[in-house]
Amino acid sequence: xxxxxxxxxxxxxxxxxxxxxxxxxxxxxxxxxxxxxxxxxxxxxxxxxxxxxxxxxxxxxxxxxxxxxxxxxxxxxxxxxxxxxxxxxxxxxxxxxxxxxxxxxxxxxxxxxxxxxx
Length: 118
Prior knowledge:
CATH class: Mainly Alpha
Largest sheet: none
CATH architecture: Orthogonal Bundle
Number of helices: 4
Distance between the termini: 56 Å
Order of helices and strands: HHHH
CATH topology: Non-ribosomal Peptide Synthetase Peptidyl Carrier Protein, Chain A
Helix content: 55-70%
Radius of gyration: 28 Å
Shape: rod-shaped
Number of domains: 1
């Protein structure tokens, strides 16, 4: 049951992180890159002129979409860091909830010393 809940929450969380990256972080990156949108960067590997990468792909032209690859790497690192921080926070709360270990009983040498004293 825990695994099913985790998968459902993970799918919902993916939408949140995708929006975070696409709507908040990528525009900031584009601002520092003087408005360059990496996702639209590509060289055409054939003949023709196309206004966008979508138009080239729709026409069946071969494109080397290096910009999308760069954005996928950036998105991966952002998502991985968010998931890492989330797991770290969950582990920290689990550790805080664990009860303190019970004190151990007497060791064998202590028991033998007690027997010898008696």
